[in-house]
């Protein structure tokens, strides 16, 4: 079976740093995606990791450890517009994705 | 910019009806996907397609079928709608390679009464 665990909700302060964790157990592994989804909108792509290590992209970074089945998304210099759900998704096979249930992040002033 | 267009934003149908949800993408993507999104359950894959006239079952295909007659269009069909199919339905497309992100449509909120 497939399983992805993420915290359901997180709250952080504007200007701070927040780390959203994702642990996975899947039948196969061909990479891990992070998506952002604002309420009532479509998910949008943030990052992709397939090798161990940190990928940095502006204020957002994503880390992967394949041996531990673990990833995190790091958001720096939080802004109010970062309030959204963050979805972790694994590529277990050829092209399909298996999604976690998402983490709802609330940024407070 | 990739554009994935779903035919309806909101749809209300009755139990037992046959329901068609349409999705069109304009970037010549090989892969297309249908998901449903429910609170506490996240995005779950219903069906996907790698090529025209080709389809694969996802994690929850029961009660659904799909059609891909043209590369740009992927249709989801609820053969006989039931109340437990009330949900947000999201279509996505991507290039063939597994490191390519999926691009999502705005979704169709379907209510079955």
Descriptive notes:
The complex is a heterodimer of chains A (109) and B (113). With 109 residues, chain A is mostly beta strands. Helices cover 0% and strands 55% of the residues of chain A. In chain A, strand 9 and strand 10 form a beta hairpin. The model of chain A has no long low-confidence stretch (mean pLDDT 95). Chain B has 113 residues and is mostly beta strands. Chain B contains no helices and eleven strands. In chain B, strands 2, 4, 5, 6, 9, 10 and 11 form a seven-stranded mixed beta sheet that branches. In chain B, strand 7 and strand 8 form a beta hairpin. Chain B is globular, with a radius of gyration of 13 Å. The termini of chain B are far apart. The mean pLDDT of chain B is 95.
Brief rundown of the structure:
The complex is a heterodimer of chains A (109) and B (113). Chain A is mainly beta and 109 residues long.
Give the assembly state of these chains.
heterodimer
What are the segments of chain A in which pLDDT stays under 50 over at least 5 consecutive residues? none
Parts with pLDDT < 50 across at least 5 consecutive residues of chain B: none
Structural class of chain B: mainly beta
What are the salient characteristics of this protein?
heterodimer; A: 109 residues; mainly beta; six-stranded mixed sheet; five-stranded antiparallel sheet; 11 strands; 55% strand; globular; B: 113 residues; seven-stranded mixed sheet; four-stranded antiparallel sheet; 0% helix
Draw up the topology in text.
The complex is a heterodimer of chains A (109) and B (113).
Chain A lengths: L2 E3 L3 E5 L4 E8 L6 E6 L6 E6 L3 E5 L2 E6 L4 E6 L8 E7 L7 E2 L3 E6 L1
Parallel strand pairs in A: 2-11
Antiparallel strand pairs in A: 1-3, 3-8, 4-5, 4-9, 6-7, 7-8, 9-10, 9-11
Chain B lengths: L3 E3 L3 E4 L5 E7 L5 E8 L3 E8 L6 E2 L6 E7 L2 E6 L8 E8 L8 E2 L3 E5 L1
Parallel strand pairs in B: 2-11
Antiparallel strand pairs in B: 1-3, 3-8, 4-5, 4-9, 5-6, 7-8, 9-10, 9-11
């Amino acid at each position: 079976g497939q399983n992805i665990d993420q915290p359901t909700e997180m709250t952080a302060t504007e200007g701070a740093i927040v780390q959203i964790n994702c642990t996975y157990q899947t039948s196969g592994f061909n990479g891990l995606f992070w998506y952002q989804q604002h309420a009532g909108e479509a998910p949008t792509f943030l990052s992709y990791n397939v090798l161990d290590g940190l990928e940095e992209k502006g204020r957002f970074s994503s880390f992967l450890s394949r041996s531990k089945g673990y990833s995190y998304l790091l958001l720096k210099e939080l802004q109010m517009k970062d309030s959204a759900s963050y979805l972790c998704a694994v590529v277990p096979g050829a092209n399909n994705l298996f999604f976690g249930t998402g983490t709802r992040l609330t940024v407070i002033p | 910019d990739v554009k994935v267009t779903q035919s309806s934003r909101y749809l209300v149908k009755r139990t037992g009806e046959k329901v068609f949800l349409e999705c069109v993408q304009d970037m010549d993507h090989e892969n297309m996907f249908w998901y449903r999104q429910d609170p506490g359950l996240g995005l779950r894959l219903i069906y996907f397609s790698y090529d025209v006239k080709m389809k694969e079952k996802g994690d929850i295909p029961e009660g659904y079928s799909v059609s891909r007659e043209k590369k740009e269009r992927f249709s989801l069909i609820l053969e006989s709608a039931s109340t437990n199919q009330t949900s947000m339905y999201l279509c996505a497309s991507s290039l063939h390679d597994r490191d390519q992100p999926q691009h999502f449509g705005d979704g169709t909120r379907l209510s079955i009464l």
